[in-house]
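[Meeting: bench + compute handoff]

Bench side (C.D.) handed over the final construct sequence. Compute side (W.E.) agreed to return the predicted structure before the next meeting so the bench team could plan truncations. Sequence as handed over:
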Amino acid sequence: MIKTDSLTKQFNGVLAVDHLSLRVNSSEVFGFLGPNGAGKTTTIRMLTALIAPTSGTATVTGFELGKDDQQIRKVVGILTESPGLYDRLSAERNLDFFARLYEVEDVAGQVERYLRMLELWDRRQEAVAQFSKGMRQKLAIARALLHEPQILFLDEPTSGLDPEAAHLVRDFIAELRSEGRTIFMCTHNLDEADRLCDRIAVFNGHLLALDTPSALRRSIYARTVVFHLRGIHPGFVERIENFPFVRSVEAVGEKLLVGLDEPEENNPAIVRALVEMGAEIQFVGELRRSLEDVYLRLVNPQDHDSDDAR
């Protein structure tokens, strides 16, 4: 659906995007994560044929960037972080105007469809200047979908929204995914990305990692099982670290943090060994790494992440 090979962009000699090569599959929600200034918005602007790359190539739904730019603009929809809407026009007239620019066949039908879908139909006659940020964001999403694009680019779709509006937008993205839409999403909300995205690219000028959220966790961190004990004997650590499947053992307070392969298979052996040594096991849990932990480790590898045993 999207293919880039060494896609590069420089502004006045400053490298914004450095030889980006990736593939985005049809009907997936693809997360594009990175700090401010990483080049995420620049990448979206290139992939939607709004700016030209300095070098490298890209195809979007089979159309070649730089050669088929007009066709690319017709098959993509884009929600920018600061959507440009006409404040003096009503919501309905805003969408009517953009639908005609996109040469939508059933303008009135499409406008009504998305205003109703995003719960704006009852406010359709009001000037956009009177809308809240959340309502404006929903209207901008409707605008991006009027022409039924094959790929939807979302740049910070829930930025600055209250929890209720953000929840509605997330539900709408999930609904679009269930319809088979391809969505390329930039967000700083890592929990949102974890829940919505099929695969995630971590990007900071160049590609740092690309995989599913669960695979990224496994690639960065071993699974860690937390044994909550009533007191820890000094010999517990030495005994457990002798198991061949154990990668690491750390005593933290009255907990043993054990990094190991296949906890479901190997936990019973550790439990038996601890009980034989007189340990009183209160309960056993797993330390779950968040996508934020993975992201920070990739973006700031020099920093030491802190363990939060649960």
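W.E. noted at the follow-up: The first strand starts at residue 2 and ends at 11. C.D. will use this when planning the next construct.
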